[in-house]
Amino acid sequence: MCWIFAYNGDKNxxxxxxxxxxxxxxxGYDSAGLIGIKSDGEVFFKKAVGxxxxxxxxxxxxxxxxxxxxxxIAHTRWAxxxxxxxxxxxxxxxxxxxxxxxxxxxxxxxxxxxxxxxxKYTFYSQTDTEVIAKLIEDSFEWxxxxxxxxxxxxxxxxxxIAVVDRENPxxxxxxxxxxxxxxxxxxxxxxxxxxxxxxxxxxxxxxxLEDYEMVVVKDKQYKIYSAGxxxxxxxxxxxxxxxxxxxxxxxxxxxKEIFEIPEVLGNVxxxxxxxxxxxxxxxxxxxLNEHDIQRIEIIASGSSYYAGLIGSYWFRxxxxxxxxxxxxxxxxxxxxxxxxxxxxxxxxxxxxxxxxRESLKIVKAKxxxxxxxxxxxxxxxxxxxDMGLYSHAWVEVWVASTKNVIxxxxxxxxxxxxxxxxxxxxxxxxxxxxxxLGWLGDKIHEVLISTSHIHEVAKKYTQYSDMFxxxxxxxxxxxxxxxxxxxxxxYIHTENYSAGELKHGPLALIDPELPCLFVNPAGKHxxxxxxxxxxxxxxxxxxxxxxxKWDPRKDDLYTDTIELPDTSETMAPFTSLIAxxxxxxxLAQELDRDVDKPKNLAxxxxxx
Length: 608
Ligand code: M6R
Description:
By secondary structure, the chain is α/β, with parallel strands linked by helices.
């Protein structure tokens, strides 16, 4: 999505803004822009379509960029209103070119606001952000703070907005509703960012704004207001290390993140599971077990949704708790029937996904128990949830979620085991699973060293423009997540179906040009899925099997196979997903896609 970065201080803001945008770029990369203001009001204003590097080239080519612009605001755009072009790129300006605005979010009533403003002003862009700039000019009386306070009553939607005023050149005002805004304190000045990661290299401490709060930065100092009153807030020490490092021997950062999975799983389990006595010793999970939970509702989007679906099988099968999993944007559209015996689990890597965040607010407003499984420490969803566990997947920078999905799935397995033990004392069965979890890292290594075979198979499948990705029971959402990763990275059209549903319609589409990828490792439904594969093979169509090494049909049933290490059914979603991620990655690489920044996407979806 769009992200903002701003600075006021001793240094020239221009190179700092460019560096800050580089750190935020993975969150939106349609276009980028910045404005710096000198203390006499003179501005340095640049925009560029495409990556931040295009903006950096333009900035470097203009020697004026070396002057001392002590204040500046900057933006990377993921287009919501209006095509990708320079006119629609932020910062946007008022008609008198006094106020400049960057914005992350959506102003839902921008059409009505624009209709009124059009009587007085000519608009140059199609964006809702230009409406904010014109509205500031139109409603400005004596200062920016009171103007924005009034505007917060008029604007409907979600936003974090930073504004500069050429007539008060050492000032930045920021407001927030929904979308994140963090203020960073540094020895040289004050920074504002949508993302704490981008502040970690420059600030020693930071403050997170809550909804309807406002920050006024002036002469290297800042004050925070709520409902017109100045407030004091907790300042956190910057203890976040944000460094994506270099790619090393990997062909993309996404590949590097996939190869971090064994260590990430170590982060997830170590300190929470005692592999010696095969018990789960985690305070949050013990506290959770004190609640009388009769039902679980999981709410998430994208890959986190598929992770939730995978986890739901364990909550039912192991802990015996009924579970429902809902896509967060659908949850928002549905009638919410609060249940005080339900646990509402929100899964989100970023902790900022707008649909998940808004769903959580609805549930909290009815005093129901909420639990977050979030990766980004201190993010909105992590702060709002009553309880939660961090997924500890380290910073996941690149657009495709991989290592975090595995971490989420690991956490839900651990939660299910803990709830199961608290309810049913099935010690020996639970211990067998915990014991196997202790070996999971080794099994994953087995997948990671078989990449050359997966690569060869992927090469072959680049010839297809469509593919079905199928599985049964827990391997149905496992296939769903693999399908999402294939389409997201390779742009091949994939469809996910339950293996049993194939003959209820989709089979009509299959022909030699449409291969079926079946995820069918050993498990209780293996034989039934084999029957579905037979139905496809009876017509001599192409089947790629993600199967166990053990599979007795591996030599006669499939067109191609990717063999997974032999494990119990409980461990197989982990190994299948990782093999699926590698397959998707190589499909994309062979098709020459930008694996780290797939087209049209952004890492953090902060608009509904
Ligand atoms: O940050 P979140 O986990 O809430 O993000 C949810 C989805 O936007 C995300 O998983 C998306 O589907 C990924 N690009 C998938 O790889």
